[in-house]
Every structure is written in structure tokens, then in C-alpha cells.
Amino acid sequence: MFILSEDSKRTQGRDAQSSNIMAGKAVSEAVRTTLGPRGMDKMLVDSSGNVVITNDGATILNEMDIEHPAAQMIVEVAESQEDEVGDGTTTASVLSGTLLAEAEDLIEQDVHATTIVEGYHEAARIALEAIDEQVLNVEVDDELLVQVAESSMTGKGTGGLTPEALAETVVEAVRHVDSDEGVARDNIEVHTQVGASSSATELVSGIIIDEEPAHDEMPTVIEDASIGILDVELGVRTGEVDAEYSIDSMDQLTAALDHEEAELRQYAQDVIDSGVDVLFTTDSVDDRVASLLASEGILTFDDISNKKARKVANATGARRVGALEDLTEEAFGHADRVRSEAYGDDELAFVEGGAAAEAVTVFVRGGTDHVADELERAIGDALDVASTALESGEVVPGAGATEIAIADHVRSAAAGIEGRKQLAVTAFADAMDIIPRTLAGNTGQDPIDSLVDLRAAHEAEGRAGLITDGETVTIDDPVEYGVVDPADVKREAVESATEAATMIVRIDDVIAAE
């Protein structure tokens, strides 16, 4: 009796587990060399020849176009890490792969998958306790936030700027959107523009959109601007039904053209009478209307997308209206300044200050597309971790110190756990060692020697990490060097890696349609 289609392929038992674990390990290994301040970059080329150069774990895994379902779970770990805390994607991916490798060894020793899963979850709980113990008893001030942001960007492509210089811009942006209600991370945007060195990167108190004025004669700068947003076409109305009009004389043609001109003039006059200084419309503006508005000094941007219209509305407090008669002062937003600037072939509209100052934009410059894109990713991660640290008020030592502490704590607790589950808890502790080992290997040190030295320094001093300073690598207290990470980044990495590894380990039957 056939239950499955003849085209189906089924893998069961140890073969299924081995296949899935191997796929997860392969994905983890692909990003392992990017970890840390000396991490290497990956060049990813798609079928169209487009090139991405990055060492961002989430970007690498997304661009790899992975098809194996178990490997895709590791990609989801990175995506979850990115969505929740914005950084630590490589750590989470590497940890997932190592947990799978440890689980494979246990399976070969006839430890049941359910026992491994229970042990891993118990170890993850102990690991979270260890992270809580590592939280520094310090106030998360601007100096500490700069250290958090700088630690996040160290080793990433930052062009000609140092991570420290960029970190100050990042902290300024985060502080700008901080309030008693929390950090409004969504109010910070990153806008890239090729054509200058990364040193030209700046913080704009407002928003930037890719739009050019509707007419060349319009002013390029408006101070103390009243802003209106229209969902109306400012042009000659056309019917929805195809129709033909018969004109028998020049007088009739002249009358039709005069009527059309009067209609357009009325549109322009209605806008002028409203008192608006800057107009954004989601529909088109006839050239004749645009010319009339230009003559009155009204800066107009037409055919903007709904997304951009919402962006302007949220930033300035303007209310979108669907009829010209509703374009009144009550519907206006406000900005201290609106300006249009050309960058090569591109024109950008800057809406700054006033109500728009609730939002800020990091205006990223780069000499090439690759530099600008990688800088955008680095700044985005730094903004996320700085926001997370400020929101939670909790940071832990970086440079592998927290992972060493977790491994030591879990290993000590394993002695009190009965049965074979103890083996899984110990394996979890061994897996945590992969982070400092990888950091050591990526800095050119011997991973085993470095791990031994780190453990000894942790036992003696209570805190030890691998500090990279130029060409020198030393084992010392990372807090003294300003190498710190948000505690939530470590928690999320442990939780998401454990969930992915245990999910994969529990699979013993794979049925695939061909």
C-alpha cells in the first residue's frame, strides 16, 4: 500500500538527524570567520551579478539564498536576533551551529534527542542567570552608550571614519528620540548617498526624502515652513469614460483652452490662498500650476509615494487632505526649514526642525555604493544596540568575557544535575566556548591556548576578555577598555540559538516532495 507519492523522498532516524545537523553546521561555519573586530568580509554575488560585500551575519545569510529547511532555521535565528535587538546575529548563528555539533556527538553516544533538548533548555535557563550576574552596576550614560555603539561597529566597514566618531553621532541620534515613554527607535532613519567620503556623514534633525521640486524656478530653501499634504491631482480633470468632443470653430477651441487655463489657475490660487509654504502631493501637478506656484515662492513636490507622504505627515504633524478646500491652516504641519539639494544626478528634500525634529536622520555618505551600504548596516546595528542598552539600562562585558562567564557558570551547575541530562548541560557549556575561541582564531591567536588563558584569568580576576588594540591582542578586563554589549543581545542570542538547535535535533523524519 502506497501512502506517500512515488515522487516523495523520505529520510528517517539517524540519517535525518545527521543531514539536518550537517546543514545547520554548514550555515554556521559560513559566518564564523566574520565574528569580532578582526572578522573577515564575505563577497556575495547573485545570479544577476550584483555584489554585496559585508560581514553582517543577517545580511550574509539572507543573500546566500539557502534552500535546505534545517539550514533555513539558522537563517531565521539571525533574522530574529536582528529584529529583536539589532546585533549579535553572527554570535547567535555560530552558537546554533555549535550546539548542533555537540548534540551530534551526544546522539552518537546514544543519548536520546529528548534528553538533549531538556538539557539544553535547562542550560539556557542557567545561562540567563549567568548573564544577569554579569550585568554591570553602572549608569547607562552617554559615555557608556558611545562604548556600546563603538563595540558594535568595531571590525565592520566604516569607511574613513573611526567607530568612535560614528558612535558619537549614533548616541546623539538615540538621545534625540529618548523620552519618558522610552526610545522611539522608529523615529531614527538612515539615509545613504554616494558621492562623498564617509567623513561627510552627519545627523539631520528631521527627515530626508528622494524628491525634486515640481518646477525648476521654485525656491530651494524655505524657512519657518507651513507644510501641507494633498492627495489631489492639480491638473486638468479627465473623465473616467472615453469620450470625444467635436470642435467646429476657432472660437470653441479658444473657449475650451480658456476654460482649461482658468481651471488650472484656480487650483494654483486655492493653494496660494491657503497660506501653505511647502506642498507635498501624492498626485501630479500640471506644469502650468507648478509655474504659478513657483512664481509665488511655494515649494512643491509632486507624485510622492504614500509611504513618503506618511513619513512627512508623521514628522511634521501635517494632516493629509483629499480636497483643496480642506487645505487649511488646521491641516498644516510645521518645520523650521525645508530645503532641496542636488547630489550629482539625485535631488533630496530635507525637512528639518520644528515638528519634524521629533524624527532624526543619519545622513550617510560613502565614496562607493559598497562603502555606503556597509556603513549603513554598521550604523543601523549601532543604533539598535544603543537603543536597547538605553531602554533596558543593562550592559555586560564584551570581548568574549560574558560567554566565558556563562560557560563557567553552566559547567559548575551541571555537576548538580542527575542523569544523562547532565551530559547535555555540559555540552551546552562547551558550545559557549566557541565564541571566545572564534574571536581568538579571527585575531590570529591559538584558540585553545587563548581559551585556557581566558579561563584562568576569569577564575583569578572574575572578568576576562580578548582585547584587540591595533595589532596587539591581550587578555584583560574588557570594561576597562570600554568593550561592552547590551545584556539583551546576549540573552536573545542564547534563547534563539537554543530554540533553533533543539527544534532541529528533535526532527527524525524528513518527507520531501520532488
Task: Please give a structural write-up.
Strands 8, 9, 10, 11, 12, 13 and 14 form a seven-stranded mixed β-sheet that branches. The protein has a three-stranded mixed β-sheet with strand order 6-15-7. Strands 1-20 form a two-stranded antiparallel ribbon. The chain has helices at residues 13-32, 57-63, 69-85, 89-108, 113-134, 142-153, 163-176, 250-274, 287-295, 306-316, 369-392, 401-414, 421-432, 434-442, 447-461, 487-505, and strands at 8-12, 42-45, 51-54, 178-179, 182-183, 188-194, 202-204, 206-209, 221-230, 278-281, 299-301, 320-321, 333-343, 346-352, 360-366, 395-397, 465-469, 472-476, 484-486, 509-513. The mean pLDDT is 82. It is an alpha+beta fold and 514 residues long. Helices cover 49% and strands 19% of the residues. The longest helix has 25 residues, at 250-274.
Count of helical stretches: 16
Radius of gyration: 29 Å
Low-confidence stretches: none
Biggest pleated-sheet summary: 7 strands, mixed
Structural class, from secondary structure content?
A: alpha+beta
List how many beta strands DSSP finds.
20
Overall outline: elongated
Q: Could you tell me how far the N terminus lies from the C terminus, measured between alpha carbons in angstroms?
A: 20 Å
**Overall average pLDDT:** 82
Q: How helical, in percent, are the residues?
A: 40-55%
What fraction of residues sit in β-strands? 15-25%
What brief labels describe this structure?
514 residues; alpha+beta; seven-stranded mixed β-sheet; three-stranded mixed β-sheet; 16 helices; 49% helix; elongated
Topology:
Blueprint: E1 8-12, H1 13-32, E2 42-45, E3 51-54, H2 57-63, H3 69-85, H4 89-108, H5 113-134, H6 142-153, H7 163-176, E4 178-179, E5 182-183, E6 188-194, E7 202-204, E8 206-209, E9 221-230, H8 250-274, E10 278-281, H9 287-295, E11 299-301, H10 306-316, E12 320-321, E13 333-343, E14 346-352, E15 360-366, H11 369-392, E16 395-397, H12 401-414, H13 421-432, H14 434-442, H15 447-461, E17 465-469, E18 472-476, E19 484-486, H16 487-505, E20 509-513
Parallel strand pairs: 6-15, 9-10, 9-12, 10-11
Antiparallel strand pairs: 1-20, 2-3, 4-5, 7-15, 8-14, 9-13, 13-14, 16-19, 17-18
